[in-house]
Design brief:
Rossmann fold, binds cytidine-5'-triphosphate, alpha/beta
């Protein structure tokens, strides 16, 4: 649902005010966001997950361990708390109980919400609600101060009649006040851009890079994958970041550490990658699709591990061509660069791919060369544009990334109005 809306996560804790989170989810939807809900065990004592599922249109996550943690959820492509942490644009905890605030402050991770809190780099907004004495207790005050010092936005509770019969501070802030904090966090959240090098020619650009190789499940333990390590995409992301860009790095399976300073989003399968890329496309002025995306997926992956018996035929179906879809959906001004892994006829096959997909350029790689490309720190290729080609001789992937960015920079100057009308 709402592929073009920003995903946010609402963490609901166990308190009387849990029911008010229903209204908050609605408000978030009305403001154009796509809220997903995570509930603590205690929250389920106050309100049923079904209520949030019906309103949000998404499965509600209630546990690290049950079926909810991955299988059958919206994103079946990995470890669910990490996926949720990496794909959300903001974590909003309302009501936040004294217990959850304490867990956050002390780094405990014994349920989905506290684990996700540690794993996310998205802005975190907490709206506490509790008994007035609990709110004023030095332990809670200290926890709140710790969280504030770490950048957590605290939406102060209001004063009034509390469910415990007392009057005072501790009442959950109003929905609009929480919404205002969310909007502010989303608009000013700095992407973790690292210091910029002398060549600052990509300052002000947002570059979306895909990297790694996708995996298509055959059964719970086996998959169809490829040899991509992610090195080339990571090198492009790192160079773009160093040259001043904000970088959204969409990663499938990789064998090396991603570069620092990029916003990392996991997308293990072709379909997950499609979803993430299309969701984030509107933010990007430059898209570089270096990932090796599977062309086929298993039509019906087995839910149990397949046993060895007689010969078996896997029925495959084609995946969506993400690159081609990006070209048709991009807004005006967005440059789209593909990669073409070829084993023969590099120039002719590369040119055909450029035309077929409608991209502005393709980086053609000879993946048959044993000392270059996959699993190697070195690469070579051709930067193929609509009106010409630039040969890139064998060099390190870091150097090649710089050359690719030089060419993209030139394309930007030559054709500033590339793309679809807004
Ligand atoms: N790509 C994509 N979606 C797919 C397959 C590929 O977006 N389902 C992208 C890759 O990220 C790459 C480009 O398309 O940027 C070319 O990938 P490649 O595997 O070389 O080409 P294919 O389109 O798969 O064509 P073929 O396998 O027939 O050569």
């Amino acid at each position: 649902m709402c592929a073009d809306r920003l995903k946010v996560t609402v963490g609901v804790c166990g308190g009387i005010a849990a029911y008010k989170a229903v209204e908050l989810v609605r408000l978030l939807q009305d403001s154009g966001l796509d809220p997903h809900v995570v509930m603590t065990r205690a929250a389920e004592e106050f309100i049923r997950p079904l209520t949030f599922a019906a309103i949000s249109g998404h499965k509600v996550i209630t546990s690290l361990w049950s079926e909810d943690a991955g299988v059958g959820s919206d994103d079946e492509s990995g470890i669910e708390h990490i996926n949720e942490a990496q794909t959300t644009r903001a974590l909003i905890v309302a009501p936040a109980t004294a217990d959850t605030l304490a867990k956050f402050a002390h780094g405990l991770a014994d349920d989905f919400l506290s684990t996700m809190y540690l794993a996310t780099t998205a802005p975190v907004i907490v709206a506490p609600a509790m008994n007035v004495n609990m709110w004023q207790h030095p332990a809670t005050r200290a926890n709140i101060e710790t969280l504030r010092a770490r950048g957590v936005k605290v939406v102060e509770p209001g004063s009034g009649y509390l469910a415990c019969g007392m009057v005072g501070g501790g009442r959950l802030a109003d929905g609009p006040a929480i919404l205002a904090a969310v909007s502010e966090a989303l608009s000013v959240h700095p992407s973790p851009v690292a210091p910029v090098s002398a060549a600052n020619d990509f300052a002000g650009e947002t570059v979306l890079v895909t990297a790694g190789g996708t995996r298509e499940a055959i059964d719970p333990v086996r998959f169809i994958g490829n040899r991509s390590s992610g090195r080339m995409g990571f090198a492009v992301a790192e160079a773009a970041r160093r040259r001043g860009a904000r970088v959204i790095l969409v990663c499938a399976s990789t064998t090396v550490e991603p570069p620092p300073g990029c916003e990392i989003v996991c997308a293990l399968t072709a379909e997950a990658m499609r979803r993430v890329v299309l969701q984030r496309l509107g933010e990007a002025g430059i898209v570089v699709m270096a990932a090796a995306v599977s062309d086929y997926t298993v039509k019906e992956a087995a839910t149990q591990k397949l046993k060895r018996d007689s010969a078996r035929i896997l029925e495959l179906e084609p995946t969506a061509d993400i690159l081609a879809e990006v070209v048709t959906r991009r807004r005006q001004g967005t440059l789209v660069i593909g990669f073409a892994a070829e084993t023969e006829e590099m120039l002719a096959n590369g040119r055909a791919k450029l035309e077929r997909k409608g991209v502005d350029a393709v980086v053609v790689n000879d993946v048959a060369a044993s000392d270059l490309g996959f699993d190697s720190d070195r690469n070579a290729g051709i930067f193929l544009k609509r009106d010409g080609a630039v040969e890139i001789p064998a060099m390190t992937k870091a150097e090649m990334a710089e050359r690719i960015l030089d060419e993209i920079g030139r394309l930007r100057l030559e054709s500033p109005r590339i793309g679809n009308p807004a």
